[in-house]
Amino acid sequence: MAHEQFFIDPFNVFLVTLTAFVGFTTSLFSRPYMRVEVARGRLTPGRLRLFHSMYQLFMATMLTALTTNNLGLLWVMMEAATLSTVLLVTLYRTPAALEAGWKYFILCGVGIAQALFGTILLYFAAEKVLGAAGVSALLWTHLDAVKDELEPVVLGLAFVFLLVGYGTKAGLAPLHNWLPDAHAEGPTPISAVLSGLLLNVAIYAVVRCKVLVEGSLHSPLPSRMLMGFGLLSVVLAAFFLWRQRDIKRLFAYSSIEHMGIIAFAFGMGGAVANFAALLHMTVHSLTKSAIFFAVGHAAQKTGTQIMERIRGLITTSPTVGWGLMLGSLAILGLPPFGVFASEFLILTTAMREQPWATPILLAGLGVAFAAIFGRVQPMVFGETTAKRLPHPPALLPVFVHLALVLMLGLFIPPWLAEWYRAAAHLIGGQ
Amino acid sequence: MTALPLDLQILNALAALLLLVSFAMLSQRRIVTLVSLLALQGALLCAATLLLAWRTGENHLYLSAALTLALKVIFLPWLLYRLIRRLGVYWDTEPLLNISGTMLVGLLIVVFAFGLAQPIAALASTAMRSAIGIAVAVVLLAFLTMITRRKAMSQVVGFLSMENGLFFGAMSATYGMPMIVELGVALDVLVAMLVLGVFFFQIREQFDSLDLHHLEALKEED
Fold first, then answer.
1. How many Cβ contacts (< 8 angstroms) between chains A and B?
2. A50-62 burial by CB neighbour count: b if 16+ within 10 A, else e?
3. What is the DSSP letter of A171?
4. pLDDT tens digit string along B121-174?
5. Is it the case that residue A288 has pLDDT exceeding 90?
6. Which structural domain, as residue segments, surrounds residue A156?
7. What is the ipTM of this complex?
8. I want to staple A209 with a disulfide (CB 3.0 to 4.6 A). Which of A162, A215, A253, B131 is the partner?
């Protein structure tokens, strides 16, 4: 059965593509960016080597987690992803970075231990149906084929642990505490891949498990739990956004909010909501990593991450200013960007299927809009006494990402729409 | 009521000892002793795995017993002892909740764990299904150890004890996970400890101590 350990289906194919693409552009961004950090004396060449090797290891774990058919191996890779990034979060060795790294390690370690318990329970239920041969009982395709026969009591219990475990990694409230710290204190390329890729893969793991559990339980319990955690994350993040002074923390909370929206959409289920959630995963990942690239340059040029001290980017460095402004508008869901399309689909589906949740979602989005736009606007257009920088930074990845998000808002290529549709069907779009 | 066969009696006794060690960890403030208790827990786990392997004839259990012996009884305790010596942290400070209070909470947790394990144990067909409750209790007690301690080192011991509990749970419910997963988990634990070793030195270099109250600066600002 060795040939069944890895697989590609409509659900993971677009995530693999997205992960490889964002991983590639982030590495293009990180080379000059990290070089400046070394030149400024924040890093030694040895630590730069650590950064680049751990970055590659992290990409390997992400891609293995996405393509493996074995739920046990998926767990192993999620844990390995944490381990490979812990030393990257603490790369600058400042007290704050060490604290962020420790929090990241312990919270994600404990969280992922819950997911291991959930995986054990899943195996326990599967073994009864698929036999103790041991090899096939954790393969997702085999489990999916027999999900009706799996013991519902055990699977229900397993899902609670799996959701808490992988939910911690996805930054769902109330277990999101590690996320803003790790994003703010780690180097910017790591913030970009944590937000853009790791969170997606964690949500992917939750959804894979949800398909199995829902098939066995025949009750809306897993969906309701996902919706509940999702809404809680949206609301909590929206209000924490107001209290931020650090620009990277601001966008980290925005990631929590968007993960909440995605979890809520997957919780609603059905062909349209699943389609929208998949689209939202794609556009959020592209936009958020673009924003972090721009933020990284802005923070590097002004030498601070405190928003009050960053002013007038449009005069000092127009490309960074425009990148940040357009990225923020895109992430806030303004048309014609792709985030608008997916959020619109999610909201209209919510109005039809879960009308009670619509005002909560709208309020969350509105509050987030005011919080982020109110802070980004003076950073870009505010008065400044700083001089215009002589050389424009290389921001190609930012504009490539934003162009793709714009394109997805106006036109989704048929083959991509077909992937989404097939994936939405696979994860339970009736 | 018929008496259980001798090997099952021994297995249940080992499970009970595991729970006892978890309680000892909860009350222990000397970090060196805490690591010794962790090694003891590993040894009990290894013995239980061996006995189960012999009883069921499942060959892969011998391999996981060997893995447990190498990693949890020998290597990790050695690594932790070395870290303790080189960092000079021998005592944890007063726990956040006093010891008798923690013990009472621990008792409640055990009752809860057995309640949680009831539906699983009822479905299990393995010889050790009665031990599933104990495994859940070990995991939750380790969690309690982690949240009541201030020193980074004690939290790590709690983390490893939690992993022991999960391993024991997998063993008593299903005779262990597939080999590839078990190997992967062991590798992750190993790497986690090595990363932590590096990490501890970074913390020490920065703060001159491993007390976690230094790591409480990152809070939401008002």
1. 137
2. ebeebbebbbebb
3. T
4. 888 776 677 788 898 999 999 988 888 887 778 888 888 999 899 988 888 888
5. yes
6. 2-426
7. 0.88
8. A162
CA distance B54 to chain A (A): 17
Q: How far apart are CA A193 and CA A26, in angstroms?
A: 7
| Assigned token pair, A391 | 């050389």
DSSP track, A37-67: HHHTTSS-HHHHHHHHHHHHHHHHHHHHHHH
A240 contacts on B by Cβ (under 8 Å): 220
User: CA end-to-end span of chain B, whole Å?
Assistant: 65
- Count of alpha carbons within 13 angstroms of residue B189, beta-carbon side: 28
Cβ atoms of A82 and A112 within 8 Å: the answer is yes
**Cβ proximity of B14 and B51 under 8 Å:** yes
Least confident of A158-162, A253-257, B113-117, B193-197: B193-197
Query: How confident is the model over B41-98, as pLDDT tens digits?
Result: 999 999 999 988 888 887 888 888 898 899 889 999 998 888 888 877 777 666 667 7
How far is CA A106 from each of CA A110, A365, A406, B71, rounded to the nearest angstrom?
6, 31, 38, 20
CB A263 within 8 A of CB A206: yes
| Residue showing tokens 């391999």 | B63
CB contacts under 8 A, B 162-181 vs A, are: 162-163, 166, 169-170, 173-175, 177-181
Phi and psi torsions of A69, nearest 5°: -90, -15
Helix pair angle (B6-27, B31-56), 10° resolution:
160
- State how many domains chain A has: 1
The answer to whether the CB atoms of A103 and B218 lie below 8 A apart is yes
